[in-house]
């Protein structure tokens, strides 16, 4: 268990370093996101094949829908390649998404308590509350400092992103249970596959981006 935790910490630190590099270097930024989304497609294809192996039509359409969705998100990052302000917004949203994951793990481990749902037995109600709490704190800190937005707007942003992250996480947990898989892959030591790390972000990112853009253009 100690070795697993150490591995997860080391991989997590590496991911944070890559995240920082992505927002410093345009080449690293573009290259890593293309790699991340390409590997996500590969992992999702494997996942969907296990679920819909007896229904090729459903398999085809679910892969097309996921491909279009993930391509749209990739376009968002490509659009922000030369816009530092857009990059800052993306960075804020990603940090809030990460805060949601960290809050869920910390509060879940410390307070334990009743399970949140049968879909993902490791998730607890206390972990869900922790996800909301840390996301809201991160949102309030970053948004008030960088954009000087109202407290209620910061609260709603953190809440909506955390809710989206948790729903995205539960959705992919449901798919993994249907496919009888623990992880979508083993690309990241101690973390599983790429989709295991960005499952919540895939929903939290567009929701957060839409909300921030509304705040900017209506503020």
What does this structure look like?
This protein has 219 residues and is mainly α. The protein has one domain (2-218). Helix content is 79%, strand content 0%. The protein contains eight helices and no strands. It has helices at 2-22, 26-51, 56-79, 84-111, 125-146, 151-179, 194-198, 201-218. Helix 2 packs antiparallel against helix 3 (56-79) and helix 2 packs across helix 6. The longest helix has 29 residues, at 151-179. It is globular, with a radius of gyration of 17 Å. The model has no long low-confidence stretch (mean pLDDT 84).
Characteristic terms for this protein:
single chain; 219 residues; mainly alpha
Summarize the structure.
The protein has 219 residues and is mainly alpha-helical.
Task: State the helical fraction.
Answer: over 70%
- The helix/strand order is HHHHHHHH
Mean pLDDT across residues = 84
Major β-sheet annotation = none
Number of domains: 1
- Round the Cα radius of gyration to an integer and report it: 17 Å
In total, how many beta strands? 0
Distance between the termini: 48 Å
Task: Find the structural class using helix and strand composition.
Answer: mainly alpha
- Tally of helical segments: 8
List strands and helices in order, with pairings:
Elements: H1 2-22, H2 26-51, H3 56-79, H4 84-111, H5 125-146, H6 151-179, H7 194-198, H8 201-218
């Amino acid at each position: 268990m100690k070795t697993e935790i150490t591995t997860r910490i080391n991989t997590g630190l590496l991911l944070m370093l890559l995240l920082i590099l992505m927002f410093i270097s345009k080449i690293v930024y573009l290259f890593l996101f293309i790699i991340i989304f390409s590997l996500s497609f590969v992992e999702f294809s494997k996942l969907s094949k296990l679920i819909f192996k007896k229904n090729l039509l459903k398999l085809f359409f679910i892969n097309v829908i996921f491909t279009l969705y993930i391509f749209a998100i990739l376009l968002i990052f490509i659009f922000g390649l030369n816009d530092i302000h857009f990059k800052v917004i993306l960075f804020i949203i990603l940090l809030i998404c990460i805060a949601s994951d960290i809050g869920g793990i910390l509060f879940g481990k410390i307070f334990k308590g009743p399970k949140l749902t049968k879909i993902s037995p490791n998730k607890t109600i206390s972990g869900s509350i922790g996800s909301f709490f840390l996301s809201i704190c991160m949102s309030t800190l970053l948004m008030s400092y960088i954009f000087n937005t109202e407290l209620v707007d910061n609260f709603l942003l953190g809440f909506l992103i955390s809710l989206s992250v948790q729903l995205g996480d539960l959705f992919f947990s449901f798919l993994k249970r249907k496919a009888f898989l623990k992880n979508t892959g083993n690309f990241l030591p101690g973390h599983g596959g790429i989709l295991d790390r960005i499952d919540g972000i895939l929903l939290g990112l567009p929701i957060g981006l839409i909300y921030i853009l509304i705040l900017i253009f209506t503020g």
